[in-house]
Amino acid sequence: TGLCKFGEACRNLHVHDGESPRADPLWEEKHNKHQARLATRNVLCAICDDDVVASGKRFGLLENCDHPFCLECIREWRDQKDTQDRENLRLCPLCR
């Protein structure tokens, strides 16, 4: 990031003048973290439709499912013991 006006929000991974990115022993790790940060931008919870990262919420992940959820939303979904059978509550609300 360095002098980039976009800071951590920048889509690019910057290097200093005259430097080869691969010369930095931590380049691959930085690159992977940068790609992961980009991948989670504008990810909307499939239940409440909030931007999970921008709202400061944590992700709630389910096995065998790629749908994104806020941790709070998926916990509320699973707490519906009175209205849903137990097997349904283990599944993704969208995939089931």
TrEMBL record:
Residues 1-17 form the C3H1-type domain. Keywords: Metal-binding, Transferase, Zinc, Zinc-finger. One of its GO terms (biological process) is protein polyubiquitination. InterPro entries: MKRN-like (IPR045072), Znf_CCCH (IPR000571), Znf_RING (IPR001841), Znf_RING/FYVE/PHD (IPR013083), Znf_RING_CS (IPR017907). GO terms for molecular function: ubiquitin protein ligase activity; zinc ion binding. CDD domains: RING-HC_MKRN. Pfam families: zf-RING_2. This is Uncharacterized protein. It comes from Perkinsus marinus (strain ATCC 50983 / TXsc).
